[in-house]
Write a structure and sequence with these properties.
Helix 2 runs parallel beside helix 3. It is globular, with a radius of gyration of 12 Å. Helix 1 links the parallel strand 1 and strand 2. The protein has a 4-stranded parallel beta sheet with strand order 2-1-3-4. It has one domain: Response regulator (Rossmann fold), CATH 3.40.50.2300. The chain is α/β, with parallel strands linked by helices and about 100 residues long.
Length: about 100
């Protein structure tokens, strides 16, 4: 069964790079550019993992986490990440962390 991932970031280039890369790894990837969008997704779909950019500004990552805590199941894993550079090395590191979180 394909694992589903929601990526939340207000950095559009980073969001696209990470989503495209995870898509090539055969994950079902959804993208949200803000917390409100993320909450809409979570209310309508179950995710195995949610990856949140800790530097989201509106709403903050703390506000997103507080809202998600109320509606998520215990089976959903959440990871926080910092902004990543568009270079291949940072993308590979982030993808590796996400993959490890999904199998552990």
């Amino acid at each position: 069964m394909t694992k589903s991932i929601l990526i939340v970031s207000d950095q559009s280039e980073e969001l696209s790079l990470l989503a495209n890369r995870l898509g090539t790894e055969h994950y079902d990837v959804s993208k949200a550019s803000n917390g409100a969008e993320a909450l809409d997704y979570v209310e309508s779909k179950r995710f195995d993992l949610i990856c949140i950019d800790i530097q989201n500004t509106s709403p903050s990552s703390e506000e997103i986490l507080a809202s998600l805590k109320e509606i998520l199941t215990k089976r959903t894993r959440i990871i926080l990440k910092k902004d990543i550079a568009p270079g291949e090395k940072d993308i590979n590191i982030c993808v590796g962390i996400i993959k490890k979180a999904l199998i552990s």
